[in-house]
Amino acid sequence: MSKERLIIFDTTLRDGEQSPGASMTQEEKIRIALMLEKMRVDVIEGGFPIASPGDFESVKAIASIVKDSTICGLARALEKDIDRAAEAIKPANSGRIHTFIATSPIHMQNKLRMTPDQVVEQAVFAVKRARNYTDDVEFSCEDAGRSEFDFLCRVIEAAIDAGARTINIPDTVGYQIPSVFGEIVGRLIQTIPNADKAIFSVHCHNDLGLAVGNSLSAVMNGARQVECTINGLGERAGNASLEEIVMAVCTRADVFPVETRIDTTHIVPTSRLVSSVTGFPVQPNKAIVGANAFAHESGIHQDGVLKHRETYEIMRAQDVGWSDNKIVLGKHSGRNAFKTRLQELNIELKSEEELNAAFSRFKDLADRKHDIFDEDLMVLMMDARAAEESAVYELVASHVCSETGESPNARVTLKVEGVEHTATAMGGGPVDAVFKAIEAIVGESATLALYSVNNITSGTDAQGEVTVRLEKSGRIIHGHGADTDIVIASAKSYVDAWNKLASQSLREHPQHHQGV
Ligand SMILES: CC(=O)SCCNC(=O)CCNC(=O)[C@H](O)C(C)(C)COP(=O)(O)OP(=O)(O)OC[C@H]1O[C@@H](n2cnc3c(N)ncnc32)[C@H](O)[C@@H]1OP(=O)(O)O
Ligand SMILES: CC(C)C(=O)C(=O)O
Ligand SMILES: [Mg+2]
Questions:
Q1: ipTM over cut 0.95
Q2: Which structural domain range is residue 359 located in?
Q3: Considering the domain boundaries, does residue 30 fall inside one?
Q4: Residue 232 Cα to ligand 3 middle (Å)
Q5: Where residue 460 sits, what CATH number does that domain have?
Q6: Residue-wise pLDDT tens digits, 295-341
Q7: Can you tell me the distance from the alpha carbon of 387 to that of 395, in angstroms, rounded to the nearest whole number?
Q8: Containing H/E element for 411?
């Protein structure tokens, strides 16, 4: 059975732009409008042409360039606003004038300072004026969410008689709750005698976080247009978010009697564009477009997703424009995710014991570092294998005291062939002091030909990777160590280098090797 169409009316460029700090230039509005067109949005509200010459020019430019979507301009119920909006949308293939007036007692009395009769008269005048320019006229009862039901019926019936083909019921201040709002919209459609001559639309704000819920409840009760914005941008707490409405209708096709014509694969790129143009970051846990919307860090979820994606995902990341879902390694991750990532990095684990040992080192690192990147894993595995191959010396503890005006003092404990040895030393810097303490335990020194530190990933909690080059008796060896503390990374690299020297000399002169 074919479904009715739900018209997606995007107002990112009008209500979204009303968000403090979200003003856009004409060029930016055009870029966003082109993305919305590509996404197959039905109606793009490009701006409020009377607001400024810039907004007028933006709507006009969008109307000239965008051909597949209807271009709409907003206008108060005033002649000058409507004439200006008509002028701006003139170049459009399909143009709409959206005129509005408030219908709630609080707005009529305190803001408009008009009687209900005057409001009805003004609404009728505005719709008729707009109809002189286009057949596609939308009328909104601003603050319908707090308007009296009987008065709404009266003004809407009059607006439809005057020629409005879309009737919008805005919950301007986000006051409504889904069950009540849906019931109001349904009852308006049932009660108003000429309701069948117009498409009913909703425009919900998010002051109580209910904009999407209210919109969807209205759809279940007969609304066939939803006004929404990318990333939920808009006045105060924003508008209903386009991506959430569209994906709810699409994902729960078993529940909603409607379908949209949106190409959902453009959702994430459009969200990114709006975020970069406005400078409003998208919160990581935002549905559909947040960085974590398709990311899994917990072991149990990762295990489930790796076995069967749908255990923890109700949509496919690719269907909304992500390249894929993400398995993020962190302190909540489990063995399955860890092992899978190592396999993807072509790091083979020889045994279950090796997996367990590597996993426990990974957990230690994850306790100290939020995000574990592939580079972290590679160094972790390299370090572990190098240590396994040639572990004469094992770093047990390193303590450095570094005070302004004082020479740094280090105390290092190494396990040498199973026995712990501790030494202290002063140095020119904390790393120098640690190296001297290690040499005191090893009982030898070597020429330090190179010392370099690189951060493996970015951020102040990144791991530092230290490489040292030691020259001793004509031999050159390198040691590596990584840690979130670079003094400890240095100690590890120095111990690694001494382990390599020890294993070389053991291979060359087994008879001379006497430990420490
Ligand atoms: C719920 C919404 O999102 S509504 C859209 C809100 N968006 C904006 O306001 C952004 C663009 N706005 C603007 O640039 C300016 O407010 C303008 C150009 C529209 C008007 O500017 P000004 O003429 O300086 O008026 P100002 O903004 O101070 O006050 C609004 C006037 O419009 C009247 N008004 C408000 N809504 C309507 C309406 N729908 N129909 C007719 N008059 C209205 C107010 O009663 C007030 O009239 P008054 O000056 O006679 O008291
Ligand atoms: C202009 C109208 C539709 C509006 O933005 C609102 O009421 O929130
Ligand atoms: Mg609004």
A1: yes
A2: 295-365
A3: yes
A4: 11
A5: 3.30.160.270
A6: 999 999 999 999 999 999 999 999 999 999 999 999 999 999 999 99
A7: 10
A8: strand 409-416
